[in-house]
Design a protein that fits this description.
Oligomer: single chain
Order of helices and strands: EHHHHEEEEEEEEEHHEHHHEHEEHHH
Largest sheet: 7 strands, antiparallel
Bound molecules: zinc ion
Shape: globular
Number of helices: 13
Number of strands: 14
Helix content: 40-55%
Radius of gyration: 25 Å
Strand content: 15-25%
Strand order of the largest sheet: 2-6-7-1-5-4-3
Distance between the termini: 35 Å
Length: about 425
């Protein structure tokens, strides 16, 4: 069984809409209160508050603030869990210190348990979402590729629209061919495969850039709310909405392109090999005072416009659905860009060398740089397959950041462990 997340657009009635906004505000208060609680307890009393302490104080909190009684208990715990996530990520050095969230920017809340709080009346396509604390059904639209038993539901308010993001336990099915392919991602050619095919990078951002610049300039000339501690003008709000819409469109186009490419690759190949990439390191800003600052910024922009990270994870999870093998070669030790696919010798290259010319005089192999790199990855994967090694560390599909923080399932385990530990 795999977990899949499906997002539905919600169409609430006016009274439902008011309730949703009201609850969002209440959850934002809880979030900010929990953050403030942690900060003051630590600063004034040197006491570190953890999730369990905050969860245990919820019943008392509801006695004082009776308006919270109508909210689902699980969803309040989930909001506290969000605070915990934020602090855990901060302690691990993965994020900045958690901040207070303005209500206007607060995204929503989660129902972590399918047994209480929400019910989905749908067979995957459209349907109704029933929130028990609301007492009636909200119409929703959307379609799931594979449907199953719903486990959690997150209500999200984004770009002036309400969404329900529902996770389901299901067994997704996907077709795959019996080909084997090596892939190399870049910004000069977005995808180069081991068969010599090259896919040009999409230029969604570049196409929209002049329009974005134009609207950004208009926005800068209007009365801005944050800087002068005044209300933003109506024109400022309108222009900002236009800018957000434009940027969202670019992101949607990219997402669509990524899924199409990933489907094309997975539908014909059951062995997919590529190299591990550190996108964050690759798209790092140029050093201060560097002469190539603008050039590097442009390179970063075009690299991010392809969305290599998203593309790779889309391929990885689609491969998992199709029971295809997806392998990532260790870049540091394999060096696919430097290595020759025929004789396995290394040839040093700079970023500008677009052609691989083998430095080994007995070989003299010539190939496009990216295609060669893709072929090296494939050869490596085939070698791994032949040696029948388990690729469990390299074929992992989850991102490493998520693995460390405990989710709600791990939370139940920890709780059990803690209570057992205290009784013994
Ligand atoms: Zn060679």
């Amino acid at each position: 069984m795999l977990t899949r997340r499906i997002t539905y657009r919600l169409y609430p009635s006016t009274s439902q809409l008011n309730k949703l906004f009201y609850w969002r505000r209440m959850h934002a208060y809880v979030y900010n209160g929990a953050v403030s609680n942690r900060i003051t307890q630590y600063r004034k009393f040197g006491h570190s508050v953890d999730y369990f302490e905050q969860q245990a104080s919820l019943p008392g909190f509801k006695k004082t603030w009776t308006e919270y009684l109508e909210l689902n208990a699980g969803s309040l715990q989930a909001t506290l869990k969000r605070v915990d996530f934020a602090f855990v990520r901060f302690f691990q050095g993965l994020a900045k210190h958690p901040k207070f969230r303005p209500i206007k920017q607060y995204s929503g809340w989660t129902y972590p348990d399918a047994r209480q709080g929400f019910k989905v009346h749908s067979d995957g396509k459209n349907g109704y979402l029933e929130l028990t604390d609301l007492g009636c059904k909200i119409q929703m639209r959307g379609e799931a590729r594979t449907w199953g038993k719903s486990t959690t539901c997150t209500i999200v308010y984004r770009n002036g629209k309400w969404f329900a993001s529902i996770t389901v336990k299901c067994i997704p099915v996907r077709e795959t061919g019996n080909g084997a392919i090596g892939l190399d991602f870049g910004c000069k050619t977005a995808i180069a495969d081991s068969n010599g095919n090259k896919i040009e990078p999409p230029k969604f951002l570049k196409e929209a850039q002049s329009q974005i610049n134009k609207i950004s300039k208009q926005l800068r000339r209007k009365r801005n709310p944050e800087k002068r501690k005044v209300k933003g003008s109506r024109r400022w709000k309108k222009t900002q909405a236009r800018l957000a819409k434009l940027k969202r469109k670019v992101a949607n186009k990219r997402q669509n392109w990524i899924h199409h490419q990933a489907v094309d690759i997975v539908s014909c190949n059951s062995l997919i090999a590529t190299e591990k990439l550190q996108i964050k390191n690759m798209t790092r800003k140029a050093k201060k005072g560097s002469k190539r600052k603008r050039q590097k910024a442009g390179l970063n922009r075009s690299m991010l416009d392809v969305g290599i990270g998203m593309l790779k994870s889309a391929i990885a999870y689609k491969a998992l659905e199709a029971n295809a093998i997806y392998l990532e070669a260790p870049t540091r030790s394999l060096k696919p860009t430097q290595r020759c696919n025929l004789c396995w010798k290394l040839t040093k290259k700079t970023l500008n060398d677009r052609l691989h010319v083998c430095s080994n005089h007995q070989c003299n192999h010539q190939e496009d740089r990216d295609v060669n790199s893709a072929q090296v990855c494939l050869t490596w994967a085939r070698g791994l397959e032949r040696a029948s090694l388990d690729g469990d560390e390299s074929s992992s599909t989850e991102s490493p950041k998520v693995r460390y923080c405990g989710g709600f399932q791990q939370l139940a385990q920890t709780k059990r462990y803690l209570t057992h530990g205290s009784t013994k």
